[in-house]
């Protein structure tokens, strides 16, 4: 069944987060091939218009995709780039908010925290002059921000320089919407919320030739009380395991050495489809059917991390010894208010269980500081948990009020000076742990998948260990894209240095 949700009209949090998972099963299906083929027809039509542009201007029109936010967005940007190339645009990298930057600029936005939104509005404001100078320039905004009706209203009212607005859930219709915009010289705002369907066969221009993102599911059903994602990305929709496997086999044939499986909560992969594998089964299938040397995945919700998954990780050396397991807070009281559905004790049990089966695992996490009602005691419990787990990496965030989420309505917001002070303490603690963990690598030999030249020193190369540690070393260009052994002889807080063995 296909259902359309409009989150402003119904209170999804109340409606959905109290339901059992089984009630949410809806039988996700692929968008019919004919609908995708139609988008290829629109891409073809745009490529003809772009040929006309070429004859007039002596060059193909340029396009710039400006991306904000998470890995899921990075991969969405690769799909936008794939469609743009198919339409004949030449892709450029300019970051300037000027008329000369590109003929078409797309902002692929994020709304997880307020500052990500402010940045985009800043760029749109700065582009007003550019649009006056070059009225033919097309400005498009898509991604998570535009799935909120108040943002679309603001764009309509204040940013008339924006020609096209579309969402995350109808991204595959970008060619159709762009053609409408080009042919009819009008503003197009379309953020259709369609659930229960996934798009296959959209062109992709990958940014990297060694590591690739593979989305395995879209959306989120968890409704953590601070988080906007379930409202803007819609309900969980899994791709079929056969489509995922096919994509990974293609990547393997193209020489990719690492894939990262993406989803807001990969651990609930397959639950929205009849007769589909679960996440552990999917990982096992990928390991059996392909020889990709490195497989990562993110993000895992602790409430759904199964013993079966731990066993699959333990028994498959292709799966990197790394697990991103966001804890958000070390206070069981706050975790309840966050609607995370686990206690701090339960979280520690999971960590211990994973470590007992995979001793060399590197954990990373997300932590929010200043969630409404966070007391000194709650925060101390977060520090205690961080000391106990000793994460290899922690992504720390200051709580940001997100309109439409339950926590934004709560009155006990923490004063910003208190939040800042706590944030600094957490950062200092984690930096110390980072350094101490890195020091244990001194003199050790590690396997590094080489990404390329180091950004800070052109004579050195850089890559990552299985545990995702950055390693810089002296090597030669033939090692790019290879897994090499490096002996560590230099330790810093966020990276290691060494020599090739
Ligand atoms: N404020 C701060 N951080 C947030 N995150 C999600 N929503 C918010 C918010 N409103 C963080 C969580 C999540 C990560 C991707 O972003 O830690 O795991
Ligand atoms: Fe947001 Fe992640 Fe919670 Fe989903 S599981 S609501 S994406 S924090």
Major sheet details: 6 strands, parallel
Indicate the low-confidence ranges by residue numbers: 1-11
What binds here, in terms of ligands, is: 5'-deoxyadenosine, iron/sulfur cluster
Strand order of the largest sheet: 3-2-4-5-6-7
Radius of gyration: 23 Å
Q: How many separate helices?
A: 14
Question: What does this entry look like structurally?
Answer:
- The protein is an alpha/beta fold and 501 residues long.
- Helices cover 37% and strands 20% of the residues.
- The protein has 14 helices and 21 strands.
- The protein has helices spanning 12-16, 33-57, 71-86, 114-133, 149-158, 174-184, 229-233, 241-253, 279-289, 307-315, 332-337, 344-357, 376-389, 416-439; strands at residues 29-30, 62-67, 90-91, 104-109, 138-143, 164-166, 188-190, 197-198, 211-215, 217-218, 237-238, 258-262, 294-298, 322-324, 362-369, 393-398, 445-453, 461-464, 470-474, 483-491, 496-500.
- α2 crosses α6 and α8 packs parallel to α9.
- The longest helix is centred in the first third of the chain and has 25 residues, at 33-57.
- The radius of gyration is 23 Å and the shape is globular.
- The termini are far apart.
- 5'-deoxyadenosine (5AD) is lined by residues 112-113, 226-227, 326, 328, 366, 368, 397, 399-400, 402.
Q: What's the short version?
A:
The chain is an alpha/beta fold and 501 residues long. It has 14 helices and 21 strands. α3 links the parallel β2 and β3.
């Amino acid at each position: 069944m296909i259902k359309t949700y409009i989150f402003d009209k119904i209170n999804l949090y109340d409606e959905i987060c109290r339901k059992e998972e089984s009630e949410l099963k809806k039988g996700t299906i692929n968008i019919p091939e004919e609908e995708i083929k139609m988008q290829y027809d629109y891409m073809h039509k745009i490529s003809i218009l772009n040929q006309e542009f070429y004859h007039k201007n002596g060059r193909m029109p340029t396009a710039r995709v400006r991306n904000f936010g998470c890995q899921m967005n990075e991969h969405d940007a690769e799909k936008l780039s794939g469609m743009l190339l198919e339409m004949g645009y030449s892709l450029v990298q300019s970051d300037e908010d000027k008329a000369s930057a590109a003929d078409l600029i797309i902002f692929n936005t994020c709304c997880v925290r307020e500052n990500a939104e402010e940045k985009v509005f800043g760029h749109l404001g700065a582009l007003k002059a550019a649009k006056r100078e070059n009225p033919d320039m097309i400005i498009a905004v898509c991604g998570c921000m535009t799935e909120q009706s108040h943002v679309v209203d603001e764009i309509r009212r204040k940013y008339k320089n924006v020609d096209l607005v579309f969402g995350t859930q109808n991204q595959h219709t970008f060619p159709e919407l762009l053609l409408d915009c080009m042919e009819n010289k009008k503003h197009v705002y379309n953020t259709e919320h369609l659930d229960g369907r996934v798009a296959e066969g959209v062109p992709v221009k990958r940014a990297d030739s060694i590591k690739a993102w593979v989305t395995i599911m879209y959306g989120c059903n968890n409704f953590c009380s601070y988080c906007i994602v379930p409202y803007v990305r819609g309900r969980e929709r899994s791709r079929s395991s056969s489509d995922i496997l096919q994509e990974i086999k293609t990547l393997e044939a193209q020489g990719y050495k690492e894939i990262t499986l993406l989803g807001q909560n990969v651990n609930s992969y397959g639950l929205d489809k009849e007769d589909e594998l679960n996440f552990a089964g999917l990982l096992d299938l990928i390991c059996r059917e392909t020889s990709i040397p490195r497989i990562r995945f993110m993000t895992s919700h602790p409430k759904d991390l199964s013993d079966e998954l731990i066993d699959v990780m333990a028994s498959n050396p292709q799966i990197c010894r790394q697990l991103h397991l966001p804890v958000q807070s070390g206070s069981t009281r706050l975790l309840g208010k966050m609607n995370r559905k686990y206690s701090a004790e339960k979280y520690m049990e999971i960590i211990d269980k994973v470590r007992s089966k995979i001793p060399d695992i590197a954990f990373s996490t997300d932590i929010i500081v200043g969630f409404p009602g966070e007391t000194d005691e709650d925060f101390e419990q977060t520090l205690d948990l961080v000391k106990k787990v000793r994460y290899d990496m922690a992504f720390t965030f200051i709580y940001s009020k997100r309109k439409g989420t339950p926590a934004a309505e709560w009155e006990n917001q923490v004063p910003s000076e208190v939040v800042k002070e706590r944030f600094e303490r957490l950062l200092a603690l984690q930096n110390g742990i980072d350094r101490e963990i890195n020091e244990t690598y001194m003199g050790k030999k590690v396997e590094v998948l080489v990404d390329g030249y180091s950004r800070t020193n052109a004579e050195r190369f850089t890559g990552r260990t299985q545990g995702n540690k950055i390693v810089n070393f002296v090597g030669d260009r033939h090692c790019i894209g290879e897994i090499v052994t490096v002996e560590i002889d230099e330790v810093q807080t966020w990276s290691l240095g060494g020599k090739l063995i």
